[in-house]
């Protein structure tokens, strides 16, 4: 048992400063799997080391995707290690051999959590979801029910279900994305509207969006050139704005 602060310090450097220099990196399997099961930021940081052991040292982790799915909660869009987590999640969901129900569960959960996410996170997660649709065409059934719950008595997706296979995501739709098309931030609304058209085959590059911050969005808006917006289409004439108004003969706006 280690204090949470020490866990974080170790896991931040383990994947690039420790594992590459070990004769037997597999000795860290138990430590990393236990850390992955702790939850919160510690689980996020353990992903880096697990990724190396799974891809380079044949670590088998039967419940890996179930645990990864459980890490998706409202705080995931606000944590300090958000960029690292989504970079690795993107890698883990890149395989075309993943079952459709699993990817659909991730898409649906990310979309549901996006309803309360900040704009800087939405500008990253919407292209992320689009990439998942490109990689896994079987999940596009979620796009063919654009009205969402309007076509059903209720949304069949079970958000509280911990097992992705039991979440019934494939029977649902991404109506949450349609809701985001009315988002107050114009860039978010534009990104959400991409799903209204046929998706291109080329994936979006999300690497530059992973660490997008609210301050950067604010600076971008501040630097935009202001456009003069006309408030009237024709000058006002008379009291009620009509050309041949009898009031114009007796009253003036000056």
TrEMBL record:
<dbReference type="InterPro" id="IPR005612">
    <property type="entry name" value="CCAAT-binding_factor"/>
</dbReference>
<keyword id="KW-0812">Transmembrane</keyword>
<protein>
    <submittedName>
        <fullName>NOC4L protein</fullName>
    </submittedName>
</protein>
<dbReference type="GO" id="GO:0042254">
    <property type="term" value="P:ribosome biogenesis"/>
</dbReference>
<comment type="similarity">
    <text>Belongs to the CBF/MAK21 family.</text>
</comment>
<keyword id="KW-0472">Membrane</keyword>
<keyword id="KW-1133">Transmembrane helix</keyword>
<dbReference type="GO" id="GO:0030692">
    <property type="term" value="C:Noc4p-Nop14p complex"/>
</dbReference>
<dbReference type="GO" id="GO:0032040">
    <property type="term" value="C:small-subunit processome"/>
</dbReference>
<feature type="transmembrane region" description="Helical">
    <location>
        <begin position="31"/>
        <end position="54"/>
    </location>
</feature>
<feature type="domain" description="CCAAT-binding factor">
    <location>
        <begin position="43"/>
        <end position="192"/>
    </location>
</feature>
<feature type="transmembrane region" description="Helical">
    <location>
        <begin position="85"/>
        <end position="107"/>
    </location>
</feature>
<dbReference type="InterPro" id="IPR027193">
    <property type="entry name" value="Noc4"/>
</dbReference>
<dbReference type="Pfam" id="PF03914">
    <property type="entry name" value="CBF"/>
</dbReference>
């Amino acid at each position: 048992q280690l204090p949470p602060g020490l866990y974080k310090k170790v896991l931040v450097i383990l994947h690039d400063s420790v594992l590459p220099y070990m004769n037997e990196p597999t000795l860290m399997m138990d430590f990393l799997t236990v850390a992955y099961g702790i939850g919160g930021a510690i689980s996020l940081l353990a992903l880096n080391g697990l990724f190396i052991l799974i891809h380079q040292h044949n670590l088998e982790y039967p419940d890996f995707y179930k645990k990864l799915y459980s890490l998706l909660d409202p705080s995931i869009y606000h944590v300090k290690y958000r960029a690292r987590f989504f970079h690795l999640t993107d890698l883990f969901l890149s395989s075309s051999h993943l079952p459709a129900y699993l990817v659909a569960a991730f898409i649906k959960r990310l979309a549901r959590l996006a309803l309360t996410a900040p704009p800087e996170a939405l500008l990253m997660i919407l292209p992320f979801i689009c990439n998942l649709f490109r990689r896994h065409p079987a999940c596009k059934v979620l796009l063919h029910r654009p009205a969402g719950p309007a076509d059903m008595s209720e949304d069949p997706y079970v958000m509280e279900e911990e097992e992705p296979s039991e979440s019934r995501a494939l029977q649902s739709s991404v109506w949450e994305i349609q809701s985001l098309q009315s988002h107050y931030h114009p860039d978010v609304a534009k990104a959400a509207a991409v799903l209204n058209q046929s998706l291109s085959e080329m994936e979006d590059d999300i690497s530059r969006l992973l660490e997008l911050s609210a301050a950067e969005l604010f600076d971008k808006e501040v630097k935009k050139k202001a456009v003069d917006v006309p408030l009237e289409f024709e000058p006002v004439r008379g009291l009620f704005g009509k050309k041949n108004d009898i009031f114009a003969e007796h009253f003036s706006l000056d």
